Queue: 2 jobs
Job 1
Amino acid sequence: MNLRELNIKLTKESLRKEISRDILIIQTIHSIDELIKIINTLVANLRERYGYYAPRASRTEDVEKFLELINKKIKEDIGMDLTQKDLDSIIELSAEIKNLIQLKKSKEKYIEELTKEICSNLSQVATPLIASRLIDHAGSLKHLAEIPSSTIQVLGAEKALFRHLKTGSKAPKFGIIFSHPNISKALQEQKGKAARKLASEISKAVKIDFFRQK
Amino acid sequence: MNLRELNIKLTKESLRKEISRDILIIQTIHSIDELIKIINTLVANLRERYGYYAPRASRTEDVEKFLELINKKIKEDIGMDLTQKDLDSIIELSAEIKNLIQLKKSKEKYIEELTKEICSNLSQVATPLIASRLIDHAGSLKHLAEIPSSTIQVLGAEKALFRHLKTGSKAPKFGIIFSHPNISKALQEQKGKAARKLASEISKAVKIDFFRQK
C-alpha cells in the first residue's frame, strides 16, 4: 500500500468513526413519526371509502376494531351497493394498514433496543420514544447532554417559548416531554412541577449515558 | 310493515340511489395519490437510513433498483458499521415500500376497471388516471359533463388562472391534462394546440359517457 492509498484509507476510517450510533435513533424516530402520519392518512381514506357502504361502522373510533369490522363486510341498510371487486379493493387497503401498524410496532421495539444500548438511563427515565424525540431535537446525544434542564423541559415548544418572550404570553411548561405519563397523569396544577422534576431527572440521566461512553 | 316503516325504507332507498358509482373513482384516486406521497416519503427516509452504510448506493435514482440494492446489503468502505439488527430494520422498511408499490399498482388496475365500466370513452381518450383526476376535480361525472372544453383544459391550474386574471401574467395552457402523452410528447410550441384538441375530445367523450347512462 503506497502513501496515497494509506491516506485515503485513514481519511475514510476517520469519517466513519465520526458517525456515532445515536444517528440510528434519529433515523428510526423519523420512520416512526412518518408511519404514524401515514397510518392516520390511510385510515381516514379507508373510512371515506367504507363509509358509503357501512356509515355507522366507519365511525368506529378504535382503529383496530374498525379494521376488524371491515373484514366482516356487513352492509348497512342505508349503504351503497358494492360489487365483490369494490369490496376486495377496500379490504386490500385495510390489510396494508394492518401491515403498517405491524411495521410501526416493530420499529418501536427496535428503537427500544437502540435506546437501551446507547442511552439506557435516559430511555428508562424518559421512555424510549420521548428519549428518541429529545435526541432528534437536540441533534445528537452529545448536544442533549450539554443542554440545561430548563431547556430540556421546553424542547419542542419553541414556538410557544418565543411567543412568550415576544408578547409576554404564558411561558410554556413543557414540550416533547408533555406526553410522558408523569406529566399526563399529574393533576392540572401539578403539571408544571412534574415537568420541572422530570426534566431535571432526564438531564442527569443523559449526562451519565453520554460520559459513560467516552 | 306499517306506514312508518315503509316511509323509512323508502327514504333509505332513495338516499342509497343518490350515490352513483363515480364516487368509487374519486375515493380510489385519493388512495392512489396518498400512496404516491407515502411511497416518496418512505423512500426518502430509507435513503437517509441506508445512506450512512452505503452512501453511493443510496443515491440510485431508480426506486426499484435502489430497493434491490438494499437486499444485497453491500457495505461501502466509507460507510458506518451496522449490526445485523440495524440492517434487518432497514430491510424491513424496504420490504414494506415494495408492498406499498404493489398496492398502488393494484389500485391503478382497479381504477382502470372502474373507469372502463363507468366512463369508457373518457378513460380511453384521457387515460384512466387523468380521467379519474378530472372527475375528482369536477366533483362527479355529471359535473364534468357540464363543464365546457376550455375549462377542462385548465382544470387543476386554478392558481395560475387566477394569477392570470388578476395580474395579466400568461394564461395557463393546461392543468391536470398536462401529464397526458399527447401533450408531454408534443413539441414546446405545439403544446397549447395539443391541449386544446385533447380538452375538446375529453369534453365530447365525457358527455357521451354521462348521457348514455341516463
Job 2
Amino acid sequence: MNTVNALIKQINGLKSELSNKDFLLTWEQTPQELQQVLAIADALKTLREENIATKVFNSGLGISVFRDNSTRTRFSYASALNLLGLAQQDLDEGKSQIAHGETVRETANMISFCADAIGIRDDMYLGAGNAYMREVGAALDDGVAQGVLPHRPALINLQCDIDHPTQAMADLAWLKEHFGNLENLKGKKIAMTWAYSPSYGKPLSVPQGIIGLMTRFGMDVTLAHPQGYDLIPQVVEVARRNAAESGGSFRQVDSMAEAFKGADIVYPKSWAPYQVMQQRTELLRQNDHDGLHTLEQHCLAQNAKHKDWHCTEEMMALTKGGDALYMHCLPADISGVSCPEGEVTESVFEKYRIATYKEASWKPYIIAAMILARKYAQPGAILQQLLEEGQKRVK
Amino acid sequence: MNTVNALIKQINGLKSELSNKDFLLTWEQTPQELQQVLAIADALKTLREENIATKVFNSGLGISVFRDNSTRTRFSYASALNLLGLAQQDLDEGKSQIAHGETVRETANMISFCADAIGIRDDMYLGAGNAYMREVGAALDDGVAQGVLPHRPALINLQCDIDHPTQAMADLAWLKEHFGNLENLKGKKIAMTWAYSPSYGKPLSVPQGIIGLMTRFGMDVTLAHPQGYDLIPQVVEVARRNAAESGGSFRQVDSMAEAFKGADIVYPKSWAPYQVMQQRTELLRQNDHDGLHTLEQHCLAQNAKHKDWHCTEEMMALTKGGDALYMHCLPADISGVSCPEGEVTESVFEKYRIATYKEASWKPYIIAAMILARKYAQPGAILQQLLEEGQKRVK
Amino acid sequence: MNTVNALIKQINGLKSELSNKDFLLTWEQTPQELQQVLAIADALKTLREENIATKVFNSGLGISVFRDNSTRTRFSYASALNLLGLAQQDLDEGKSQIAHGETVRETANMISFCADAIGIRDDMYLGAGNAYMREVGAALDDGVAQGVLPHRPALINLQCDIDHPTQAMADLAWLKEHFGNLENLKGKKIAMTWAYSPSYGKPLSVPQGIIGLMTRFGMDVTLAHPQGYDLIPQVVEVARRNAAESGGSFRQVDSMAEAFKGADIVYPKSWAPYQVMQQRTELLRQNDHDGLHTLEQHCLAQNAKHKDWHCTEEMMALTKGGDALYMHCLPADISGVSCPEGEVTESVFEKYRIATYKEASWKPYIIAAMILARKYAQPGAILQQLLEEGQKRVK
C-alpha cells in the first residue's frame, strides 16, 4: 500500500480545477491536471489489484450514449462505472445524428435525475461530436443552476471528432508504466504514422489525440502520412504549440521509414484524410448512399497506392535498437490474420501483442479517474478514505 | 431531516393496503393510499438530496418489459430500481403482442425467481395492456402460492391502454410541490385539453390518467377536445364519479379557449380518438399495413382541421392572472422547434420549460415509492431505518 | 440455518479441483465435484430464502455472450450474477459465428480486465460451440499468465453443441430435491425420449446433457428416439461408460412406449438428428439459405411421420404407478396450447406445470454455484462467512 500512499501524496500536491470542468480535450487541461488523472488511475488500479473496493458511489447511474458500434470502449466505460459503484444505463438514440437545441437540452436533463456520469461516443460527424458534448454539458449546467438536477454528472468524452482523450490518456499511462515515469518520456521519439488498411473512414481522433497529448511531455513527436492524408489543421497547430511549450519537438514527414528511424515508440494506424471526412460528413447528413459509395471506392483506390505503409520487421529494424515499443488502440489490421494486407505484419504484432493488451488495460482506470476527478475537489482524500476503510472487493 | 421525520409520521398515520395489491389504476387506490405513495416519494427524494442511500435491497433484480419505444419511462424506472438497490434486466420480447395463457404464466414465473419488481409498459393495444398486466399479476400470485417464487415481485404499470399511473402520480407530486400541499389543490381549476400535433396515434393513457386522478382531490377538472376525440367512456365516467365524491367538479367542453378560461393549470396534449385507437388495435392485430396507412392519412387530415387547438400566448392570457401553470408529460410538440405546427408555441413552452423538467423529475421517486409500498406493510418503518442508518449515497 | 451448516460440512468434505478448471462438460468433473456444485447451489438457495445476502463480490462484471436468442438462460445467468454481487454486461457480437484465432484471444482479454465471470451460449454450430469456449478459456489463462488479467474469470458454459451443463445440473438438483437425496436416485428409471414438435433444428445439448449426467448416479437411463434421430455418437458412448462405472444402466430403444414402461421419470423433448445438425452447420457456414430451407422442409416432413411420439395420458399410464415425474427444460411444445400438435398434451403438462417451474428455479443457483466453485478453493469457508455475517438481502 506504499504505492497508493505515495500516489495520494502526489495527487494532493497537484493543482487541479478538474472538479469544475469537463475533460473534453486533453489540451484544455493543465499538465498538473493530466498528471493528477494519471495518478488517480494508478491508485485505482493498485487498489483493485490489492483487492480493495473502490465504490465511492453507493447506488447511482452512469449513462452511456454510443453513436456507433463499440466493444472495447463500451466495456472500458462499463468497467469504470462498476469500479466506482455506478450502474450502467444505455441511451439508445438510434445511430442517426440527434437533433440539437431543445431535444438535447431536454434529453440531457431527463436522463440525469439520478445520474453521476454520462459518457458519450460521437466520432462520425466532423465538426459535430465535440460540439454536441459541449451542448450536453451546457444543458447539464443549466439543469443544476435551475434546481432541476441535484448535482452535476461527470461528462466523459469516449471519443469525438477531434480527440479521443480516454484512449490517449490510457496510452500515456501505459508509456509511464513502461518507461518508469513521466520524466523518462522527455526526449523520447514517438512516431505516429498512418498505415495501410483495407477499410476507409477510420476516425481521426486517435492520431489527433496522440499528437495533442504526447507533445505535452517533452517528447519528440513525428507525424507521418502520405500526402493528402492530413489531420484537422487546428489540431496539428495545437501539437506544434504544445511541443514548443513543453521543450519537446513536433515535425511532419511523408514517409513511414523516415518517422521510424531512431524512434523509441511507433504507433502505425490507418485513418481517413481530413478532407474525406468532411465530404463524408456532408454525405452522411444528406443520407446520400450513392455518394458515400462513390467516395468509398475512390478512397479505397487511393489507399491502395500506399500499401507500403506497412509496419514490417524491416520497418521496425529502423527504430532505436531495432526494438521500439509498438502501440495500437486495437483492433489492428494484421496482415494475413484479420485481413490480407494491413497495418502490421503478424510477426511484429505477435511480438507486441501482450504489450498492446496492457496498453488497453489502462482505459477503465483512466475513465474512472476522470469521473473521480470531476466529482471530488479533493480526490486524494477520497482515495485515502478507500484505503483506510479497506473494504474487500472479493470476499 | 425534519422533513423526512414529518413525512414518516404522515406515512405511519395513513391506512394502506398497498402491500397486498398492485397499483395498476389510480382509481383503484384509496385517497390515503395515494397520499402515502406521494409521501414516500417525497421522503425518498429528500433522503437522496441529503446524500442518504435508499438501498433497501442488497441485490435483487427489477425486470422491465417495454412493448414500445421509451426513453423517459425507461430511465425513470431504471433510476427507481437503482435507488432501491435493484439491478435492471430487460425482457426483450420483440414488439409483437405476446401470446396469452400458458406463455404469460410461464414467462412471468421464469423471470421472477430472483426478481423484486416487474415494470410493464404496454399501451398500444386498446383493451389489452392493462388486462395483460393483470394476467401477469395473477401468474405471480399463483407462483407464490405454489411455492415456485419465494416472494411476490411488485408489479408496476409503466403505462397501459387505460391509465399511466406513474405519470399521473408524478404530475400530482409536482402540483403538491408547486402549490405547497394537497389541501391547496382544492378548488383549483385544471384544463386537460387536446392539442394539435402533426402525428397521430398518441395514447389515451395520459389524459385519462389526469382526469382519473386529479378529480380525487377536489379540483375543478375540465376535459376539452374537438368533437370526435373522445376518451374511453368508462374512464370519463370514473372521472365524473370521482369529482362528485371528492367535492370537486368535472366537465367536458369542445373548445380549448373555454377550458383555459380562469384555469390555474393547463395540460394541452395531443391524443388519438378512442374510436381510432379501437380501429388501430384491430388493424395492428391483423398486421394490416395498408389499413394502418389509410387510417393514419384519414386521421392526419382530421387533425389538420384543428390546428387552432394550439397553446399560444393569447390562449395563456385567458387563464387565471394570465399565468396558469403549464404542464406536459414531455416531449411536447413545440411549434417551430420540434415540428412546424404543434401543441404549444416556443415562447409559452420556454417560459415553463424548467417547470416541466421538475414535473418529470418526480417520476423515479414515484416508481420507487410504489415498489416500496408494495414490498413493505410498514413503509414508514423502513424509511426510519434508512434515516437512522444514514449510509452515504456518495462518499 | 441448520440446513446451511449441514451443507457447508458436506461441501468441506468433498474433494474438488473445480477452482482450477472450467466446468464445460459434466463428464469432465468427478462425482464429488458434481456433488459439491449441487450442495453449494442448495446452500445459496437456502440463504436466499432466509433473506441472507450472498454477495461475495463487492463490484465486478459478469460478461454474457449469447450467440442465439435466449430468455430463460439469460435471466438465470443475470440472476446468478446478481446473487453474487456482479453486474451483467452483454457482449453483442451479432449472431454470426465469430472468427477464431487472434480475434478470440484479443476479445477475451479486452472484456476481462474487470470481469469475474464470462458466460457463453453457443449451440448452433456442431463441432464449434464447446471448442470456442475452450479457445476463450485458453486465451484467459494466457492473459493471466502474461500479467494482462489480474485474475482468471470463471467461464460458464450456458449451452454448447455437446452439453448443457447448467440445465442438466439444475435438473439433477431438482431430482435430488424431489426424491430427497442423490442416494435415492440409485435404480430410478429415467426415460430421455424424443418427442414430436412442429419445429426442427432444436439442439442436441439437452438430451446429451441428460444422458451424460444422469448415468453418473446409478440411475437406469433409457434413451429413446425414432430411427435416424441419433445423438452425437461419442456422447452416447460417454453415457454407456458412465452407467457401467456408476452401477446404473444405459440402453437405447426406438419406441417412446418402451422407454416409458415402468419409468420413474420421463423427459420427452424434441431434437434434430445429429446428421441433420451436421448438414445444417455446413449450410449455416456457407450462408446457404436455399439449402437451409430445403433441409428444413425435408426434416419437417420426416418429423411429421412421428407425431405418435407424444406424451399423452395413455403414455403416462405406462410409467411406474402411472405417475412418473414429467420433466422439461421449457418451453415445451404443448398440443393445442403452444402448437396444434406437439411434445405433450395439455392435460399431462398442466399436471406437472408447477413441477417444471420448480425444476427451472434451480438454474440461477447452479450457475452461481459454478462461479463460486471456480473462484474459491474453499467454497465452504466463504459460505460460512456469508452465514456468519448474516447481511440481510432485503432490509
